[in-house]
Amino acid sequence: MTYVVTDACIACKYTDCVEVCPVDCFYEGENFLAIKPDECIDCGVCEPECPVEAIKPDTEDPDGKWTELNAKYAEQWPNITKAKPALPEADAMADVENKLETHFSEKPGEGD
Length: 112
Known about the structure:
Order of helices and strands: EHEEEHHH
Function: Ferredoxins are iron-sulfur proteins that transfer electrons in a wide variety of metabolic reactions.
Pfam family, one: DUF3470
Largest sheet: 2 strands, antiparallel
CATH architecture: 2-Layer Sandwich
Helix content: 10-25%
Structural class: alpha+beta
Cofactor: [4Fe-4S] cluster; [3Fe-4S] cluster
GO molecular function: 3 iron, 4 sulfur cluster binding; 4 iron, 4 sulfur cluster binding; electron transfer activity; metal ion binding
Number of strands: 4
CATH class: Alpha Beta
Mean pLDDT: 96
Strand content: 5-15%
Distance between the termini: 27 Å
Shape: globular
Keywords: 3Fe-4S, 4Fe-4S, Electron transport, Iron, Iron-sulfur, Metal-binding, Repeat, Transport
Number of helices: 4
CATH topology: Alpha-Beta Plaits
């Protein structure tokens, strides 16, 4: 099992989770975070830190869509280990559903 970042993170990008990760397996996109599955040690400390509940065990990703997306972009984006302010629109976007098709950006973030 590994943890994955899901739709709720898109256009919010709260980074509370990255500082508690003991293996620094988060990678930063312009408006989304990804967990590198090969680095995640399944400790689960990141999951309760996410204010929008975007982090889930991969067992809650039955079709593997989020696991694949996390793996793909964790290979392309820079590592992030320190918390940053959430995106300006985070509070407004927190309750929006199905953001992958309409709001997801493939562009990398800045990383640390």
